[in-house]
Specification:
By secondary structure, this protein is mainly alpha-helical. 54% of the residues lie in helices and 2% in strands. A hairpin with a 6-residue loop joins strand 1 and strand 2. InterPro entries: Alginate_lyase_dom, Chondroitin_lyas. This is Alginate lyase domain-containing protein.
């Protein structure tokens, strides 16, 4: 197929950043946090069970000890794993303690969150080896969620400036050039950059993340309105039909909601869908609603994947051999597209509600039944 016949995802508008950033404003707003606190304290579901599950996890322990490293080295599939798991889980723990403080107002949780973030901001200098970009993105997706709550609601954090310098010099500098080798990598990178931009009140960084996101989302989730073949981004150099099909893990039949990684496995598909929903939620909080732009793709992809989590796959999909395991990633998109915007999503609803409370994947997704499960804010 000629190069001209390949559809390329369109470029985004130059500016997406708000005139003034809203804080806390990375994935969860103050209004949403207030709903969480009210519902937990009133024993209202699904928040109460989700909160109890979070507080029963090791991430919420007041004896949690951070394990910072100056250089985090992560090879393919985290081999070697020199600080990779520690960094990701410490970032989740910082966020967990920030949420626990918000609900309880027990200063011990805020103090623990600060201790974890200060340990890393005083130590980490670099990420290396093959998975450096993905590791940086996953960790930098969780750090700003914690930091936003502590800095802008708790408030007593003397080293918040040093933490911001860490996000800029260690994390953003590592991933600002992105990494297009597969869709979930670039979407995770976009999510991390957007969160860093919010915390730093840096419009240029925020716009960089949104630009990556707007180009990658339509190249990650297919709609029949895209034409015979999925959209692409120029950095992947997919200039023939054969290259596109290969990049889509040899899937040659394209239907609404199929993703670039569906036929790799649902785990990696879930990573991408999670970042898509997280960025859309952050942008909505910041006053630029991206759901009209990406919501149909997100809704269709959640519906497609949850359908085949619940039922056997057809023979035309991935050769009839779907590798399930979507992960705890549906709450944010389901709440936005079904509860807030009123779209029927029966399979996503069934799959999500049957598995509540959705907890953490120990990478960069954590406690989204608590923060977004049927949250009207």
């Amino acid at each position: 197929m000629a190069v001209a016949a390949i559809v390329v995802a369109s470029a985004s508008p130059a500016t997406a950043a708000p005139p003034t950033f809203t804080h806390p404003g990375v994935m969860v707003s103050k209004a949403q946090l207030d709903v969480v606190r009210t519902r937990v304290n009133a024993g209202t579901q699904p928040q109460k069970r989700a909160y109890d599950a979070m507080m029963g996890s090791r991430y919420a322990s007041l004896s949690y000890t951070p394990h910072p490293r100056a250089v985090v080295e992560c090879g393919p599939v985290s081999n070697p794993n020199l600080g990779c798991t520690d960094e990701r889980e410490d970032a989740i723990a910082a966020y967990t303690h920030a949420l626990a403080w918000y609900v309880t107002r027990d200063v011990r949780y805020a103090t623990k969150s600060i201790q974890i973030m200060d340990a890393w901001s005083a130590t980490v200098r670099d990420h290396t080896n093959d998975n450096a970009h993905l590791q940086t993105a996953w960790s930098a997706s969780s750090w700003p969620r914690a930091a936003e709550i502590i800095k802008h609601v708790y408030g007593n954090w003397p080293n918040s400036g040093r933490f911001g310098t860490m996000l800029r010099n260690v994390y953003y500098n590592e991933i600002q050039g992105s990494d297009p080798r597969t869709g979930n990598w670039e979407l995770s990178i976009a999510e991390a950059i957007v969160g860093i931009g919010v915390f730093l009140d840096d419009k240029a960084i925020y716009d960089r993340g949104i630009s990556l996101y707007r180009a990658r989302v339509p190249a990650f989730i297919y709609l029949t309105s895209d034409g015979a073949l999925p959209k692409t981004v120029p950095s992947n150099n997919l200039n023939t039909r054969e290259k596109i099909i290969g990049f889509w893990h040899n899937q040659s039949t394209f239907v609404n909601g199929l993703t670039q990684e569906t036929c790799r496995d649902f785990v990696h598909t879930g990573y991408g869908l999670s970042s898509i929903s997280h960025v859309a939620e952050t942008s909505r909080i910041q006053g630029v609603d991206l759901y009209p732009e990406v919501g149909t793709r997100l809704k269709e992809a959640l519906g497609f994947q949850t359908t085949y989590e619940l039922t056997g796959p057809p023979s035309w999909l991935c050769g009839g051999a779907v590798k399930r395991g979507l992960g705890p990633i549906t709450e944010v998109g389901y709440n936005a597209m079904h509860n807030r915007l009123g779209n029927p999503m029966p399979n996503t609803e069934t799959w999500t509600t049957q598995r509540r409370p959705l907890g953490t994947n120990n990478l960069f997704v954590s406690w989204e039944t608590l923060t977004h499960g049927d949250n009207p804010a």
